[in-house]
């Protein structure tokens, strides 16, 4: 008796739209983009007062993001996307491999890029407030800081800006590579907050908006104090 030839079965995976990014995370992302561009323009045009106000706003956003990374929604929390260096390197080895995008939040390499950008923004904004207060003779602490330290902070502010711009360029290039090589479009979900994922993937939990407002208020108060005393 002739045996039947088996045909390979096709597994159809159903998908659904999942909200992966909450409103506070998306607002932080796009406001930071706008403010960094504003900081660059005002620095080039020597609009120092406006440049400082932008820097203070950026610092408040960065402090908020640090708090949101501890107490916010699941995909915004550092513990959910900061992987080991080995995991990040393993992910980068597959960066040119075309494969389905089933990542809920930041991937292993992207998580480290987020940390780098936040760290550079924090250093740049903090040093910028000190430099402005030192030059304008406004900050009480600027009077007691030794001249070599003050000069080092000024140099750090200049170097930090160059490093920040380089990191931003790297970030944009990585987004382009993911779109072209892997077919993963990262910008759309950061705008809409939603992403099509397999129906078996659990939707991440979200923190309430009132908590985001509270944390932003705390960050603003800290910036106000730093702008007064640095």
Span from first to last CA?
90 Å
Number of domains: 1
What is the radius of gyration?
Answer: 22 Å
CATH architecture: Up-down Bundle
| Strand order within the widest beta sheet | 1-2
Order of helices and strands: EHHHHHHHEH
Average pLDDT works out at 89
Could you give a short account of the major beta sheet?
2 strands, antiparallel
**Quaternary organisation:** single chain
Alpha plus pi helix count: 8
Name of the level-1 CATH class: Mainly Alpha
Which spans have pLDDT < 50 for at least 5 consecutive residues?
1-10
Query: What proportion of the residues form beta strands (DSSP E)?
Result: under 5%
Structural class: mainly alpha
Q: What is the tally of beta strands?
A: 2
Helix content: 55-70%
Instruction: Give the overall shape.
Output: elongated
Q: What is the CATH T-level topology?
A: Fumarate Reductase Cytochrome B subunit
């Amino acid at each position: 008796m002739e045996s039947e030839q088996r045909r390979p079965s096709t597994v159809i995976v159903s998908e659904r739209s999942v909200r992966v990014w909450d409103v506070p995370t998306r607002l932080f992302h796009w406001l930071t983009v706008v403010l960094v561009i504003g900081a660059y323009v005002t620095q080039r045009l020597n609009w120092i007062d406006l440049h400082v106000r932008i820097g203070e706003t950026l610092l408040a956003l960065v402090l908020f993001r640090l708090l949101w990374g501890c107490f916010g929604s699941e995909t915004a929390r550092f513990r959910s996307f900061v992987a080991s260096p080995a995991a990040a390197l393993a992910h980068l080895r597959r960066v040119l491999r075309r494969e389905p995008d089933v990542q809920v939040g930041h991937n292993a390499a992207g998580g480290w890029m987020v940390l780098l950008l936040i760290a550079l923004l924090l250093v740049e904004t903090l040093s910028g407030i000190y430099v402005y207060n030192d030059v304008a003779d406004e900050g009480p602490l600027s009077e007691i800081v030794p001249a070599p330290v003050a000069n080092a902070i000024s140099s750090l502010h200049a170097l930090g800006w160059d490093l920040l711009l380089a990191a931003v360029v790297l970030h944009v290039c990585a987004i382009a590579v993911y779109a072209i090589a892997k077919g993963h479009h990262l910008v759309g979900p950061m705008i809409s907050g939603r992403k099509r994922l397999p129906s078996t993937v659990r939707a991440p939990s979200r923190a309430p908006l009132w908590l985001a407002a509270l944390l932003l208020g705390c960050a603003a108060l800290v910036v106000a104090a730093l702008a007064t005393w640095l």
